Amino acid sequence: MRHFGHIAPEVRRRLFHQEPCSFTADSPTRLLSAALGATLYSPATRPRLADDIVRQAANGVVSMVLCLEDSIDDADVVHGEENLVRQFADLDGAGTALPLLFIRVRTPEQIPDLVDRLGAGVRHLSGFVLPKFTEERGIPFLEALATAEAACGRRLFAMPVLESPELLYRESRFDTLEGVFRAVDKYRDRVLALRLGVTDFCSSYGLRRAPDMTAYDVQIVASVIADVVNMLGRADGTGFTVTGPVWEYFRVPERLFKPMLRTSPFLEGQAVELREALIEHAMDGLLREISLDHANGLLGKTCIHPSHVPAVHALSVVSHEEYSDAADILHPERGGGGVLRSQYTNKMNEVKPHRAWAERTMLRAEVFGVAHEDISFVDLLAAGIPD
């Protein structure tokens, strides 16, 4: 699979200075964690789930979570498990590359049980999403994952979700984060990424952000994101990929504030119509939140609607300017440090302080590609939207 692999090769050549790389479920962990992109959630009870997975793969989705937790009723868990077993068997005849597939479970016991029940279908499974993760609750999930991995002989990843009240409350936050780090550090080779459960954070205070506000406008949520990145997302080799929070909206009946999308990037061709469609479907807020995710050290995003996927991927592509700066900083001759003017002559590149940023940028360039100098995110977004 590859990002933007669903669009025609000649279109990719027009858009990309460096095209996104191909990868599989067996690729190195560091590459896969960066390549998750827009992770689309789907209830595990959907009757045509296998068909949905194949269709979304054809539309550019490269990672999906099949949810047995909050997205389904408590009474439907058994049915959801049975449905997953049937649908994974149906995927054998897909005849096409599938996304990275993860199951969001409720209890540790579900992990080895599902792996056993999936049988040969387990080869389509990349791992499990672990809800409401803390050290105390998370260790049994990780131990169950190790047991299941040994039983099936296949590498299985964990994606813990940070969403518990202990993480939100100031008096317990730092102890909780230290405990989370101890747990995921012990099982570092199995932890693909950490996911943020912002909806649960808001629930603890009876809050819900409006479609014209981002998670970073809700200060109590923004403070948690900052502390998670501070303690778990460091670039010194101890950190993990932290993914962005879910965007809940896909259509806005009434707008209180002005749209957040500037008009100027959309002035050419049919892009004006694209801007209007994005605003109508609450995508201007999503685009702003994705940009703020990147600015705050997050990569990838939880998505609950297929229409969100192209936006996440378009804004994940490395611009030609970013790539130029990163390449200059990482040039072997710059190993001793120093300061240089960027090739775009609009900024200072300081080799030692900017090195970690450059390394992360080059990893993102590998999986999402580098746009041509004259290509904007509007071009990438328009090309990535399925017909």
Automatic annotation (TrEMBL):
Keyword Lyase listed: yes
CC cofactor: Mg(2+)
Keywords: Lyase, Magnesium, Metal-binding
InterPro entries to which the protein is assigned, alphabetical: C-C_Bond_Lyase-like, Citrate_lyase_beta/mcl1/mcl2, Pyrv/PenolPyrv_kinase-like_dom, Pyrv_kinase-like_dom_sf
Highest taxon above the source species: Bacteria
A GO term, aspect molecular function: lyase activity
Protein known as: HpcH/HpaI aldolase/citrate lyase family protein
Organism, scientific name: Streptomyces actuosus
